[in-house]
Amino acid sequence: MSGPALVRTVLGDVDPASLGVVDAHDHLFLRTPRLPGQEMDSASAAEAELRAFATAGGGALAQWTPVGLGRRADLLPMLSRVTGVHLIAATGLHQAAHYAPEFLDRLLPRLARRFIADLTEGIHGSNGLVRAGMIKVAGGFHRLDPHARQVFTAAAEAHHLTGAPIGVHLELGTGAPETLDLLCTELGVPADRVILGHLNRAPDTRTHLRAAEAGAYLAFDGPSRAHHPTDWRLLDCLAALAEAGHADRLLIGGDTTTAAARATSGEGPGLPYLPGVLRPRIERELGADTAKSCFETNPARAFAITRPA
C-alpha cells in the first residue's frame, strides 16, 4: 500500500498540483573545478534571479546541484520563503572529474547511506536540516564508467527505499539507452522514476522516442548559455515527441551553470526566460496543451514521491 503522491520541497512536502510552472533542471548554486572562476555562490544573486523567475510566472525549480559541489542547501529554505518559489534540492553525485580523489575515497564506500540520509533525515547545514527531494547522477560520453555504475547503483538503492526520482546528467545528451538498461532493467528502477537530462544536446529523435516509449521523462534544458548551439533544435525535438504521442514525457529546464548566465546579474538568459519567453513560444508553436504538459502537468508527476501509507 502507498499513500498520496507528494513533492518534497525544502520547506516540506507539498501537493504536486501546487507547483505551478516548473523549471525542471537548474542551479542556484554550483561550484566545480571544471568551471574555474565561474562559481555560483552568491545568495543575493540567487534571490534576485528567483524573484525574476517568479515575476515571469515561475512557481517551482529543481536544483540539480549534488553532493560536494556547493549546493548550499541550508540557504534554500530562506530563498523559497522570501521569493515564494518552491525549491527541490538534490542529493547524488556527479562525474568523478568534478571531485578531488580523496573526497571520493571517503564518500563512495557509504554512498547509498549518504543519499538516503539526505532524502530522509536531511542535509546538514548552518541553518539546520533540509531534506532533498531527488537524486542526481551522471553518465559519461556514450558510456557508463565504473564510477557511474557505482553511483547509479547507490541511487537505485536510495530510490527503492525512499521513492525519490533520479535525474540523470547525460554527457552531451548521450547514453540514454545504457542508462535505462542499467537503472531500469538491471537495478529495477521504474522508468517513470527516471528523468533524462540534456537530451537536446544530442538531437537524435530515434533515441528520444525509445526513451519516451520506455516511460522515462525527457528533460530538455534550453536555453543554456554553455550549450547554446543546441538551442535551435529544441522546438524540433519537442515537436517530434509530441507528434508521436509523448507530450506527457517532456520537461523543460534552463541549466544555468555559471554566474554569467544569470539574467539579473549576468548576460542571461537566466531563470526568467523559461516562463517569460520559452513557455509562450512553446504554446504558440506546439499548442497550449503541450506547453502545460511540459511546464506543469509532467513535472508534477516526475518529481512526485509516493510515501508509505
From TrEMBL:
Signal sequence bounds: none
Task: List required co-factors.
Answer: a divalent metal cation
* Source organism: Kitasatospora gansuensis
Question: Which SUPFAM superfamilies has this protein been placed in?
Answer: Metallo-dependent hydrolases (SSF51556)
Sorted UniProt keywords: Hydrolase, Metal-binding
Q: Which family does it belong to?
A: Belongs to the metallo-dependent hydrolases superfamily. Phosphotriesterase family.
Q: Which amino acid positions bind Zn(2+) 2, per UniProt?
A: 136, 169, 198
Co-factor note (free text): Binds 2 divalent metal cations per subunit.
The name on file for this protein is Phosphotriesterase-related protein
